[in-house]
Structure formats: structure tokens, C-alpha cells
Amino acid sequence: MSTWVSLFSGGKDSSWALYRALERGLPVERLVTVHPTGDSYMYHVPATELARLAAESIGIELHEVKPAAFAEATDAGARGDAELEPLEAALAELAPELGGIAGVTAGAVESEYQTSRIRGMCDRLDAELFAPLWQGDPERLLQVMLGAGFEITVVGVAAAGLDRSWLGRQLDEAALSELLDLRERYGVHPLGEGGEFETVVTDGPHMSRPIELDATPTFDGTRGQLEIDDARLGES
């Protein structure tokens, strides 16, 4: 039987898409992580190296894609297309090894820019797209993730109202309430869909062991990220 692959950054949205796929019994046999160099229009950027630990905890083999830095482009569409190319090439190479790719999971919520490109890629690979967060209510989605037992840590911020104190913070109901206030004041998306913040899932019901972090926040007054000093799997 053809298998599934999961586009996986280690962040909350791709982790939730994977979790829901596993709940459905979809035969996910590879996680695929793209490691961009510098800013990216298509991919989660901070702390993608933690995907290796997450994959070990989840028990699914990880395939890593390490493209060169994406050249700046005045045409955003061309930039997105260029960023997709190494991912599509990696999946095309994996397909024979896996006996074909029946489907791909993705954590897209509202970005038509990203989703249209991933959908087109799936069409070219003759694969189904499973995007369980697509067009969902962001407040409800985060509540459901937390209710399922996801431990979600903020590893990057880049929006008004999100300061140094958010770096390394674990999302909970109090954090969600603050994010909803920031949506009213500054337009911050509660799931960070506009790049306002980035996350990593350090534990969840699909993981056998939690990820433990030693990290240092760096913040320039506008944006910042959690610099990972050490990371390891804790006890189950």
C-alpha cells in the first residue's frame, strides 16, 4: 500500500496535522523537514533542528531537506515557487523508496500562498493533501491542541505586542487570552499564521518522550528567537 508523508517542522501546526493523520490511521512513514537558510516565505524557520528529536520521540523516520539560502526576489510568487522546488524534488526521490506516496499532510491554516503551492505539488505527485487545520477557527484550534495534551513552546516572535517575555513561554489558556487581546490591539493572529510567532511542540500524545530544552532568548526590540543551547529527550 502506498504510504503517506508528513510535512513537519516540529511546530504546532504541522505536528497537529501529523497527529490527526495518525488518529485517522493514515500510514505515515516519513516526516519531511525543510531547513531554510535565512527567512522563508514557505517554511517555518526557527529551531527546525529539533525535528530530529521529535521524530525519534514519535517513532517515524525523518527525511531532511537542506536547500541553499533562497535568493531574494521582487516577485513573491516566483519566490514561493522557487522555495517549493527542493521539497518537491525530495518527495519525488522518496516516492520509489516508499512504494509511492498516497498523500501528504500539511499544517496550513489560512495561507492560500502556501497552500495553493502545496496543493499543486500534490497534484503533480498524484498524492492526496490532508490539511486538517485549513480554514479552522484559530482560537478553537489552539484550544483543541492544548486540550489534547500538546505542550507548545514559543521559539520566535516578530509582531507588535510580542516581546522577549514570550520567548520560551509555553502556550496555555492564559497565553491564548493574551493573544486574543493582541489580535484586537495589533491584529496578531492567535496561531501566528502571519509569521507573528513560531513554536515547537515539546510533548504530546503522539510522542513517547518529551523534548527538554536549554535555550537563550535573543530579542532586538522588534523580533527575536530562542537560541537552542542544548536539547534532549527526557524520560517517558
CATH topology category name of the largest domain: Rossmann fold
Second-tier CATH architecture of the largest domain: 3-Layer(aba) Sandwich
What's the count of strands? 9
Number of helices: 6
H-E string: EHEHEHEHEHEHEEE
Low-confidence parts, pLDDT < 50 over ≥5 residues? none
CATH homology group of the largest domain: HUPs
Main beta sheet, described? 5 strands, parallel
Given the helix and strand composition, which structural class is it? alpha/beta
CATH top level label of the largest domain? Alpha Beta
Mean pLDDT: 93
Helix amount, in percent? 25-40%
Global morphology: globular
Strand numbers in spatial order across the main sheet: 3-2-1-4-5
Structural overview:
This protein is α/β, with parallel strands linked by helices. The chain folds into two domains: 128 residues, HUPs (Rossmann fold); 96 residues, Alpha-Beta Complex (putative n-type atp pyrophosphatase, domain 2), CATH 3.90.1490. 34% of the residues lie in helices and 24% in strands. The protein is built from six helices and nine strands; from the N terminus they run βαβαβαβαβαβαβββ. The strands form two sheets. Strands 3-2-1-4-5 form a five-stranded parallel beta sheet, with helices on both faces. Strand 2, helix 2 and strand 3 form a beta-alpha-beta unit. The longest helix is centred in the middle third of the chain and has 23 residues. It starts with a strand and ends with a strand. The mean pLDDT is 93.
